[in-house]
Write a structure and sequence with these properties.
With 275 residues, the protein is α/β, with parallel strands linked by helices. The chain contains 8 helices and 9 strands. About 3% of the residues have low confidence.
Length: 275
């Protein structure tokens, strides 16, 4: 049986796991204040006392809002923060599971979180800034099973906490959607959505056989999105650089090379399930 001190120590330790949590808001007497861009809790400094050494208390179950455990006098918050003492926490722009359904992504991805992206600190820091304000192009290149798709979905998960203008498609799905526009009874607006959404992810680029007409469309899509500072595009591919050039041509490769390239290396992370 635990002593009272052990129980208290265990309880307090549960609030000290700050490394992989993002701080989106902090509590004040005027309600929740946004932190833009969000920061990892380990890097968060109390805006009132300026002291990073005190624990940050999580005050909602989604790990999005925090307050200084010191209960800074400058914050003018009551000593006990309970329901109704401050304004309601802003909700997600779109529930993650619902976004997955909209984009044809299976329920196995419901548990994706940006904080769970298992990549280098440099990649994660860049993706954090990109997810906050998408702009330009990120090209993720590497063999299958190295975490490219998870990293993309993690960016989408973070982005959709505050913004719903986000689309995820595979190369094959994009080509299928493009072909649908040639049908006489087509009344959709997907291609317009691809052009205008703030965050667009094209996964597995280069895995489908495409026509020259589709590649001209894709080049035009990338060109158009690059003309806007508030539209970001992420493309993942298993192709090497020389294979990409053969697949999409020099003009498109020239556009893609203007963006940030991430090389994914190592052994596959996919594990086959035993029978």
């Amino acid at each position: 049986m635990k002593t009272l001190k052990q129980a208290c120590d265990s309880y307090m330790a549960s609030f000290n796991n700050r490394e992989n949590k993002l701080v989106h808001f902090y509590a004040s007497s005027e309600g929740y204040k946004p932190i833009d861009p969000p920061v990892f809790a380990a890097d968060f400094v109390c805006p009132f006392c300026g002291n990073p050494e005190y624990l940050l208390w999580m005050i909602n179950k989604e790990d999005r809002a925090w307050m200084c455990s010191r209960i800074c006098s400058l914050s003018k918050l009551p000593k006990e923060v309970g329901g109704g003492c401050i304004a309601p926490l802003p909700v997600r722009a779109v529930p993650w599971a619902l976004w997955c359904e909209y984009n044809g992504i299976g329920d196995l991805m419901y548990e994706v979180r940006f904080e769970k992206i298992d990549q280098s600190k440099g990649k994660v820091d860049y993706l954090l800034k990109f997810a906050t304000k998408p702009s330009g192009i990120i090209l993720m290149q590497g063999n299958k099973g190295l975490g490219k798709t998870y990293a993309c979905l993690g960016v989408c998960e973070l982005f959709t906490r505050t913004n719903s203008s986000c689309v995820f498609m595979t190369n094959l799905q994009l080509m299928t959607a493009w072909l649908e526009t040639f049908k006489p009874d087509y009344k959709g607006n997907l291609l317009s959505k691809l052009l205008n959404c703030q965050l667009l992810v094209i996964d597995d680029f280069g895995t489908a056989e495409v026509s020259s007409g589709f590649m001209r469309y894709f080049l035009d899509l990338i060109n158009s999105r690059m003309q806007w500072s508030d539209r970001g595009t992420i493309i993942t591919t298993n192709l090497t650089e020389s294979q990409q050039s053969d697949y999409c041509g020099e003009a498109l490769m020239d556009r893609l090379n203007t963006g940030q390239k991430f090389i994914f290396e190592g052994k596959t992370r996919r594990v086959s399930k035993p029978l």
